[in-house]
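Notebook B, p. 112. Complex prediction, attempt 2.
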Amino acid sequence: MEETISRFFDNKIIAIAAAMALVAIMLALLASCGDSGGTVFSGKGLATGEPGMNIYSGKEPGQASKIERPYPGAPPLVPHAVDKMNITREKNDCIGCHKDGIRVGQDVATKIPESHYEGTGLAGIRYNCRQCHVPQAEGEPPV
Amino acid sequence: MGELTRREFLKRGGVIVSVVGGTIYLNPYLDYVEAITESLDDLTWDKAPCRFCGTGCSVLVGVKDGKIVAVKGDPESSVNKGTLCVKGYSLPFIQYGRDRLTKPLIRKKNGSYDKQGELTEASWDEAMELIAQKAKKTIEDKGPSAVAMFGSGQWTIWEGYAASKLWKAGLQSNSIEVNARHCMASAVTGFMTTFGMDEPMGSYEDFSHADVFVLWGANMAEMHPILFSKITDRLLQNKNAQLINMTTISNRSSAMAAKEIIFKPQSDLAIANGIANILINEGWINQDFISRHLAFKRGKENIGYGLEDRFAFEDEPKASDFQAYSQFVSNYTPEYVEKLSGVSRDDLYQLARLYGDPKLKVVSLWTMGMNQHTRGTWINNLVYNLHLLTGKISEPGNQPFSLTGQPSACGTTREVGTFTQRLPADMVVTNAEHRAKTEKIWGVPEGTIPAKPTFHAIEMMKALDRGEVNVFWSQTANPFQAFPNLNRYRKAALKEENFIIVSDVYPTRSTEIADVVLPSAMWVEKEGAFGNAERRTQFWRRMIDPPGEARSDLWQTVEFAKRMGQGNLFEYSDDDFPMPQSYPSSDATQDAGFYLEKALFEEYRKFGLGVGHDLAPFDVYHQTRGLRWPVVDGKETLIRYREGYDPYVEKGKGLDFYGNEKTGGKAVVWSRPYEPPPEVPNSEYPFWLCTGRVMEHWHSGTMTRRVKSLYKAYPHATANLHPEDASKLGIRSGTKIRISSRRGEAVMFAEVAGRVTPQEGMVYVPWFDEDVLINNVTLDAYCPISKQADFKKCAVRIEVV
């Protein structure tokens, strides 16, 4: 089976030795910067050389503390598990707690703002809560 | 600042409105946890279309101290009515990833270019000189077709236009292609063969009038969230409206559906013909419409899959008639269709009833499921057949609707014509009159544009491997992650004689094998224009500065042109196109000394005027939330081909498919058979592999995976399996597996009963993850008519690692 062709990463241990040699060469190049006329680019991008698994908190509503919004006006992120919650034409499981912002466990559910309503109900274009409000998994971006 | 005040300034139109007072958390970089409190003084807002998908939502961008600090859904836009999806709300972060490219890089050893060297910082002058030198040498040795440009449906309209003009008129090379070949080419050939004119006849307004929505292999809930919410809105407001989700994978779109219909890969061809057969047998067709508005044709069959190098195909359409067509579809009995597709006779009959009931208005929707298909042109034709036989087309709520993947796949690649065979306004290089018209508008001598197309996308990569293309320049694309059968093409790029240039904003899987990397300006760092899926052309102004020495792709192309002795293609008068005074101009305009974007657009407009592709004057687009072409007498067009809506339809005609001059304005119903895919599961490779996207990530993830909240929402690509298959293989969620095909392999973690569940015998892997290069596994077979690759079907083996 063919290997993934990469200038920087490879899954095989043998590549690590090569990478170490490469680092040595790069350091040598950096040291000789004055002669070769330029800084060697050190950016490695997002690739880490290993696949990952998406692991979410799994905490029930009320057990998890709120996550700070990326910026004011950004949709709040979901701190609790959502895999058992459904949004169908007949029923939206989010509305139960978030319509009035009721107390759940130690916390108060973030209340759906006025902007989301049209007439008496949730505006259709905002009914699919998860198009904006997403849970957060473990781990940080590699960059 | 109170909520009311905020709403007020949004209502003012959101264009350069300053706001005073209040607080805002500023987090121009990724560290939102460490966000600081600042006042809203001097925050300015301006409009722009979203950077991501083809929906074309309008956003209001809030800028403070030269940085984007917030975005809002634009309440003035009829596309998104004040909301956005999670990707749209992440726009303030996409330009501020820590490893943004800010300097040109050249692969060097001992201070000079060396294919085996390291990417080393260089000046623009040195980088552009090296590119020009390589291009000149290659043209000298092998001719202009050996110098290739690979662009994108994420190019702005003028970036695509400038590149096309430079290549076709300047370098006299038709070696220009776009990643939209992998995205929309089958949609184009579907439109051209059925209607003689590209792009949808309807608009998103149709969603508010439909009774039935049929998804043909499109998971809109994730891939077009705002359009899916427009459908949701209709379903909630009209209890009789219904959604049918036809798919090979159980997905989120089913949550709103009256019925989820799972079909076997490739069998959509049989299903569409089977529905047509029932429509005819039951008399659910519109005879009057058929006799007045339709022509019938049949093309070549057993047309191959393009797996061989230099594969060539030309269809030979023959005239047919209703009777012969009826005979043709009569083979697709419900029993036969059930055998091929797994769709029950009852479900097929119900589908036919929905299409056939004259009281029900039907919108059919599709994207990659139908376009990335070795019979992509055919399946587009076959779904049009259903709307044509029933006359359910070009009226409010009755439309076939081909959705678009990229923000300007329509506006740039299709309308400007940045494919090897195309020219602006649906013209082609193989047509002498089309070339003459183009040469006249471009002010170049007759005979300048080469009459023969060179390489479509897959063939361009194969030509790189064969040594027929030696200079390959990618702009706004990530080909060395995105192409199918990736191993072959990554190896090709690394061949000593090949010179790879990648213009991008971050290090990617393509920059890592590039010989020159050019740092690009992105989105609102330049002035831009996109065209969305409903023919809406939208503009934005430059709002912030690009970082470091980053430059727009337009500037790069014009700079390259100058060094190739083709600078005159981009010389216009500053009397005609004075630089903008009331807002900042782009780097390209500043360098030119006149309003380059305006000059290019006004020239480009000449192609469409009077031929059904009319665009409004440049300045109009800066004042509107976009307009849907044709724009005639200042009015946009919501529905094409219908009298009263479309200014091109003469009074009294009612309906006129005027793109088809040869058939006298009739749309074409095609007899297209079911043919099997090129590679099917067997004992050695027992599973289907289907690839695609997830909601949170855009294409190869280079922007969205640098946004913390998006990364954390869906960090990694996993392999989604059916529980029965997982159980048989001893796999659970979290088991590390290897997926391999005849071409390559990828290692990742399995997910069972995750967000999507494929049918038994299929595995679904999204392609956004740089650590899961699933395209090493995929097959580079394509539709012989559209040349679009099929990323949805190949045979693989799954093993626990």
